[in-house]
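From the shared-data thread, chain only:
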Amino acid sequence: MRPPMPDHRPDRLPLWRHIALFRRDILSAQPARLYRARMAEVKLPFLHSVMVNTPELVRLVLQERPADFPKSARVREGLRPLLGDSIFITNGAVWARQRRMIDPAFEGGRTRESFPAMWAAAEAMAARLAPGEIEVEAAMSHVTADVIFRTLFSVPIEEATAAEVYRAFRAHQRANPILNPAALVPMPPWVPRLFPRKTRATAARIRALITRMVDARMAEIAAGTAPDDLATKIMTTTDPETGARFSTEEMVDQVAIFFLAGHETSASALAWTLWLVAAHPDWQARLRDEAAVLCGSIGGVSPDFSVLRAMPLIRDTFREALRLYPPVPMMVREAAGPECFRGRDLGAGAQVIVSPWHMGRNERIWDDPHDFRPERWQDPATTACARAGFLPFSAGPRVCPGAGFAMAEAVLILARILCAWEVQPLPGAVPQPVAQLTVRARDGIRVVLSRR
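Structure, as tokens:
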């Protein structure tokens, strides 16, 4: 079964219709020709943007000259109520300082040290699953949120504050618009941002809850009783250039993006992976055989981190799902000065879009780009394709610091499910991808679980 794709708009469309489509779903607002186009341009009196669709231009923007293409100020406006000045939206010296203080938490053996907490979350998930129909996005959202809380703050999601943060994030996702007016029309700083009242309320609630957790952890650090987890590591790391640590407000910003990036994106990718596995029973049988290496640990001692190396096909299946359904479908940068791309002049402030969705399905890079073929990752030729068009974690200096963490978490959760369950698609319920905060399904993703 070919993986489902979004509808695509006609090549030419009135502006009002394009904006209406974009507000509802970024993906269906794009024409199908972008899967083979080298660049696309939109030029309006108040907006000039280009989507770069060749490996050379993507490499230029993300890797060769990233300082000339900072995060878009327009896009930052829509994220600021929740994320403040987190590493995801800052630029320049502020971003560099944040990166210096966050990277050590994910270096070396930190993911290995977090592995028992991941396993505990996977076991808790297994206890919640039951035979019959399940809504996969909700189940994966729950387990990935649990992983974040256990690895970041050493508490399971059932702990009261953690559970409240999780519920508030779900409410914020429903309330947050894809397109804020500031993303289209540049506004001076003194103009009020017209966020819906519910969006502002849910963002404020999340930040208040995270502040409570950060304050409690700072008190534990001061008392010498803090657990050795990611939050403690980040909060006790000093900037090697200034010797300063994150303030409470700065740490709240970082925790907000850790939760959004480490929970929402992982949940999206895992949900699509499970549906793809369900829709391909022969491949699922191969993965089930591979997951058997993990089954002996169920109900007992946490497996060793090295078990992940024994499950390369599960890892490759997750990679293929990330190629087809990258959680963040588009990344928006901004030209800091005049540029010329493929003979088109861009002025300072022009929006430059890199699309992991279109690069992952680029017909000039991948063979059978819209097909689910996880075995392609066993072919050495795929390495070159991945260098050119596989961008689920971005690339260059702003590559996601938690990429290795996300891969380990995904392989473990998928293997734990396959140890105990056969997964089948719900008849007649083919999920339709839409891009909200991440690539989700319009009406959810439903599968049927049967005990092995």
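The longest strand covers residues 39-44.
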